Amino acid sequence: MDSTEPKFSEKRFEEIHKEITAYVKKVGYNPTIVPILPISGFNGDNMLEKSDNMTWWKKKKIERKGGSYEFETLFDALDNIDPPSRPMDKALRLPLQDVYKIGGIGTVPVGRVETGILKPGMVVNFAPTGPTTEVKSVEMHHEALVEAQPGDNVGFNVKNVSVKELKRGFVASDSKNDPAKEAADFTAQVIVLNHPGQIQAGYSPVLDCHTAHIACRFAELVTKD
C-alpha cells in the first residue's frame, strides 16, 4: 500500500479488492470467507499491528462453518486459518521432486506425500514407467520416521533401484492399494484467467502437475461456460 498513488489509498485498495474477489469467485472459492486486507510488507503496516497510515481500514468479520472471527492485521488473518485435514485414508501418492544416490545408503527419492501414508517395508510402484520395489527407510530432516503423512517432505531409501530408473515427476504409490497408472489422455476442467490468444482444439501448452513438467495438447473442447 505504500506504493499506491497517493500512498495508502483507500480507493486503490477497493479496486484491487474488487479484482481479487472476482478471481477468487472465478476459480471456485467463496469470496466472503477469504480475508483481503491492505498491508505494506516493506513498512510493516497492518502486518502485526493496526497501521496509523490507513485510518479508513476497519476491523472485518468473517462468517464460516467453523465459527466467526474478526481480523484487522495479516497476523489476525493467518492465525485464524483452518488447518486442512490430512487425506491419510486415500491411496498413497508421492510425486518425486528429485532422486539422489547417497554413499553407503543407496538410491534415495525425495518428495512430498500428497495423500495416504508411506512407511518402511511398503512395496511401492513408480509411475508411469518406473520399477516396483521395497521401501527400506523413511526420513524427514535426518530423522527416521515410522510413517510419513500427507504434507511431509521426506526422503526414502529403496532397494535395488538405480538413480537412472527414476526422475522428477514420477509418482510413488502403494503397489497393493490403487497404484498410480499412466494415462494417454484425460478430461480436465480448465479455468482461464488471462490469455492473449484463442484456446481451441490443437492448443499445445506445457502442463505443470505437482512436480511433472510436460507438453500436452488439447484434443477437444467438450464444454465452455
From TrEMBL:
Keywords: Cytoplasm, Elongation factor, GTP-binding, Nucleotide-binding, Protein biosynthesis. GO terms for cellular component: cytoplasm. It is found in: Cytoplasm. Residues 180-223 form the Translation elongation factor EFTu/EF1A C-terminal domain. Residues 106-171 form the Translation elongation factor EFTu-like domain. The keyword Cytoplasm applies. The keyword Membrane does not apply. It comes from the Eukaryota. InterPro entries: EFTu-like_2, P-loop_NTPase, TRAFAC_GTPase_members, Transl_B-barrel_sf, Transl_elong_EFTu/EF1A_C. GO terms for molecular function: GTP binding; translation elongation factor activity. This is Elongation factor 1-alpha. It comes from Hirondellea gigas. The lineage of its organism: Eukaryota, Metazoa, Ecdysozoa, Arthropoda, Crustacea.
